User: Which sequence fits this backbone?
DNA sequence: GTCTATACACCGATAGAC
DNA sequence: GTCTATCGGTGTATAGAC
């Protein structure tokens, strides 16, 4: 009896090639900047002719789109995993969330530009690629809600604060710690403003 | 006696043409984005052939350079003029400075991108064009110093805070007020943290 | 100083053979 | 699915006539 193969080798090979293309695109982005990704250069790196890429992606923007979706999925997974270990205590939890986002964003400029900045003039993520981004935002919001941060104005203040630190770090001290070191202080300011309960003294023996 | 003309009409005409070019470049930047400025399009708008622009600027980046220098000079003048009317009282003065910068930055996205963001891949301002930017920074710093803000970490916190609000406003609510409305609150937080004296009650009759 | 003509190096995308 | 060949377009910049 001739059944269907239980592994679709063809589909696997196809997916592997798509990944090769995306990986090469990230390589170029990291070396020469996000806007320097070209079909020619991708093709050269993976040993193809440029037109062959159209067998796997409908256009150059479709490649950006796949990159966008993937990094947001990555962030989603990393955030969900990390948030399980965040402290339960509100201030510690807020600081952990801010620090996690800061470190993730700052560790890869081009990724940050694709995820959070409108750098590519005529690229708009498809609805499908945007879905993980929304999912991510919901996870972050649920963490903040759990701390007691509900009002939109408070969320806006939080995003401006953390985003501002990230941008200054990337723009003025890439690879350094100048604004990273300000994260606890900035989060503390916000926590005071929001009236979060003061952090309990750490590892005090029971009295 | 044949003297030198007291007005150099030729030089004046030349300067006027340079200005025409720069103005056209800003027009394009505002309509289609900073990176969409091309020599072809500039030439078309002022009724020239593209190569003719090289009689006035050595390269496309030289045009960006002139734009960069000019907007920073404009900001310098505006800031110096406005700061004369800032309140003397520290908290009011800090808020006035932050508000002034916020409004200036937010009122023109492309100008902000040229002044404060590294958007143009292979454009680095010349030393001459950068000079007004430094002068500006010194004016801002002197205002902050006058309030009692000296430490680098405090200045860094200020720039991150205000810059963060600006970026969120431009990215997520262009033309709106969502983050503009948070400026007083954010500045208040920072003022508290720095221990600035509390603002006196406004327009209290003398007692 | 402005023009015409052109060089040169790219780019994304398509057609059609194999 | 990959190739070759090519199209039609972008862009900056230079040479030389006027």
Assistant:
């Amino acid at each position: 009896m001739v059944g269907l193969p239980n592994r679709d080798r063809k589909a696997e090979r196809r997916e592997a090639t798509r990944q090769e293309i995306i990986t090469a695109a990230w390589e170029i982005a990291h070396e020469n900047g996000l806007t320097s990704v070209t079909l020619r250069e991708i093709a050269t790196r993976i040993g193809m002719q440029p037109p062959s890429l159209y067998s796997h992606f409908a256009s150059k923007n479709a490649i950006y789109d796949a990159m966008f979706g993937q990094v947001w999925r990555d962030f989603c997974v990393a955030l969900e995993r990390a948030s399980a270990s965040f402290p339960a205590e509100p201030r510690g939890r807020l600081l952990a969330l801010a620090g996690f986002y800061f470190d993730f964003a700052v560790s890869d400029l081009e990724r940050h530009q694709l995820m959070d900045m409108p750098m590519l003039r005529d690229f708009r993520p498809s609805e499908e690629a945007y879905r993980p981004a929304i999912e991510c935002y919901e996870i972050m919001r649920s963490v903040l809600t759990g701390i007691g941060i509900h009002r939109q104005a408070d969320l806006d203040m939080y995003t401006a604060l953390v985003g501002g630190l990230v941008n200054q770090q990337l723009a003025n001290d890439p690879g350094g710690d100048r604004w990273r070191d300000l994260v606890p202080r900035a989060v503390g300011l916000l926590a005071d403003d929001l009236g979060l309960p003061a952090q309990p003294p750490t590892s005090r023996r029971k009295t």
